[in-house]
Amino acid sequence: AYTCDLFDDVYSAALAINPCFNIYHILDTCPHLWSQLGIVNSGDYFPPGASVYFNRSDVQAAINAPPNTNWMQCTNKNVFGGATNNRSLSDQSLGPAQDGVLQHVIEATNNTIIGVGNLDFLLPPNGTLMALQNVTWNGVQGFQSYPGNEFYTPYHPEYNGGSLAGAGSNWLGMKRTDLGANGWRLPGDGKTELPQYTAGAAYRIVELLLGRISSLGEAGDFTTQTGNFTGSSTIYRV
Known about the structure:
Helix content is about 20%, strand content about 15%. By secondary structure, it is an alpha+beta fold.
């Protein structure tokens, strides 16, 4: 490795100790997890004989997709490579936090949600926050305080043992809302696996996006469930 290439030094050392180390969720251990949506990155595991969900003929028929389409999470072609698929080319445009796009989206919607997981090895939460602090929206630069307010994930009944999700506040996440921008950070989440590792929090974020709740700190049931699940009743010791 290069002398200053600390990233690859740490990554190689992590793989030596944990061959299933996941740069997108650093607490993963062996055996490899796999996804019904197939392989995205080199090193991802996909069991022999398994089918990618969106490549199944019955699924393609159900969603009216062209039959025999080879669906992939990420294309194996360089979308910036032009007609020759030049692998050396890349996107040269500025990021949305630099070219005014993010500012426009926040001001146009006043309900923009930006989040990050603490367990991502590639994009640390403080890096995202530093980028946001250099963006001005609705006349004010950045968040006015650290995203340390309570993020509430409702308690809820769950009868499907294959789809359990945690509930509570603070330990599942923290948030901040300023002038139409909602920022959150989740201690148990990584880069792209929000519904996988913190499904309840992910569902709550969707409810905010759809306007069904006013804030990620709103204490109450999921809007698709009714009942007293919030832990407000008396708890007795048996």
